[in-house]
Amino acid sequence: MKREMIPVPKPRSNFLTVQCEKCSATTTVFSHTTANIKCSGCGEPIAQSSGSKARILGKVVATLDQ
Ligand SMILES: [Zn+2]
Questions:
Q1: What is the pLDDT along the chain (66 residues), one digit of tens a residue?
Q2: Ligand 1 centre distance from Cα of residue 25 (Å)
Q3: Is 5 inside any structural domain?
Q4: Which DSSP string corresponds to 31-45?
Q5: I want to staple 19 with a disulfide (CB 3.0 to 4.6 A). Which of 6, 29, 59, 65 is the partner?
Q6: Residue 7 CA to ligand 1 centre (angstroms)
Q7: Full domain range(s) for residue 40
Q8: Distance, CA 3 to ligand 1 centroid (Å)?
Q9: pTM of the predicted structure, to 2 decimals
Q10: What CATH number did the domain enclosing 60 receive?
Q11: How many separate domains does the chain show?
Q12: What separation in Å is there between the alpha carbon of 19 and the centre of ligand 1?
């Protein structure tokens, strides 16, 4: 039986620039952060740890690959 090569998207970790929807300040967040991240401007939570990939609560305006 022939095996087909299926490209598997690797779960890559990267940094995200997240913009707060409340005050528009941007904060850089690690995509797999294990901490809850708050906005650098107003303290509103913008990212939550969810086991693997963080749950982003704000708006992702940029992705920075490592
Ligand atoms: Zn804010």
A1: 677 787 776 667 899 999 999 999 999 999 999 999 999 999 999 999 998 899 999 999 999 876
A2: 5
A3: no
A4: TT-SS-EE-TTT--E
A5: 59
A6: 39
A7: 14-65
A8: 50
A9: 0.77
A10: 2.20.25.100
A11: 1
A12: 8
Report CA(48)–ligand 1 centroid distance (Å).
Answer: 15
Q: Could you tell me what percentage of the chain is helix, strand and coil, using 3-state DSSP and rounding each to the nearest 5? A: 0, 40, 60
**Residues whose CB is under 5 A from ligand 1 (ion)?**
20, 22-23, 25, 39, 41-42, 44
Place of tokens 């990939």: 53
Going from the Cα of 8 to the center of ligand 1, the distance in angstroms, rounded, reads 36
Six-digit token string for 13? 């970790």
Identify whether 8 is part of a domain: no
Q: Look at residue 44 in the predicted model and tell me its pLDDT.
A: 96
